Amino acid sequence: MFVNEERPCYDLDRIKVVTEVTGYLTNLTPLRIGSGKGSASFRDTTDNPILTRGDMPYIPGSSLKGALRSWLEANVEGLYGRLGQKYTKVYPITARDNEVKSCVKSSDTQGNQVEEYCIPCIIFGHKDLSARMNIMDATVEGSFKVESYTGVSINRVFGGQSPGHLFTFDYVSPGAKFRFRSIIYNVNVENETEEWREQVRRGVVFLLRSLEEGLFIGARKTTGAGLVKLQDIRVRTMVPGQPWREVKWAEVKL
């Protein structure tokens, strides 16, 4: 295997460890992930239907990935600030080539080692860098209820109703359970020896802990919608050629 010393995070040509995370996402507040206003048909009773597959609501993996990536980017300074600048630049741009540097290890003119790592890039991928964390669509399981909400646009100048701006949208009522599954490559969630790998591990653990505590996803988050929590979490890991092994998730440290 060829190891790129200047870009050490380009290592997915060889899988060293696979981690599977499963559980249930439960929405504590109304959840709305819409299919778009233009997708409404004459059969729909609302202007803005929710996203469904076979009449069953689901949370796209892309929506979960986007929410998690944005949350990690917003917390990079708090997670890695004490370690210096090499982990705090989410998108370090050079004036010369204007390219994102996901991970770079080199030496300056004085021979000092220079390292820069974009942890969100390493976890979720960017351009020619593959993602380590893959998130599947979360399909609803068990009973659920879809309700409609009627609202009206407010004129910001006069502070009153805008004529002709009545609208309706659907949402999944609180209490629904969505099956969560994520496959993560080359991240040992229990412990890593190399420093940059340890920071990637911390980023993954931080995201999963955040989901356990509750994150907002979907639309109308500023009005309290979309609060979900990851429950009944199960984590197991596998080294190629060996059987799956359960991880004691409660003992995993950030």
What does this 3D model show about the protein?
The chain has helices spanning 61-74, 76-80, 119-124, 195-213, and strands at 18-27, 52-53, 56-59, 103-107, 113-117, 133-135, 138-141, 146-154, 161-172, 177-185, 215-216, 227-238, 245-246. By secondary structure, the protein is α+β, with helices and mostly antiparallel strands. The chain has a single domain (18-79, 121-239), classed as Alpha-Beta Plaits, CATH 3.30.70. The strands form 3 sheets. Strands 1, 2, 3, 6, 7, 10, 11, 12 and 13 form a 9-stranded antiparallel sheet that branches. It has a two-stranded antiparallel sheet with strand order 4-5. A hairpin with a 2-residue loop joins strand 2 and strand 3.
Question: Could you name the key traits of this structure?
Answer:
CRISPR-associated RAMP protein, alpha+beta, two-stranded antiparallel ribbon, globular, CRISPR-assoc_RAMP_Csx7, Alpha-Beta Plaits, 13 strands, single chain, antiviral defense, nine-stranded antiparallel sheet, RAMP_III_fam, 254 residues
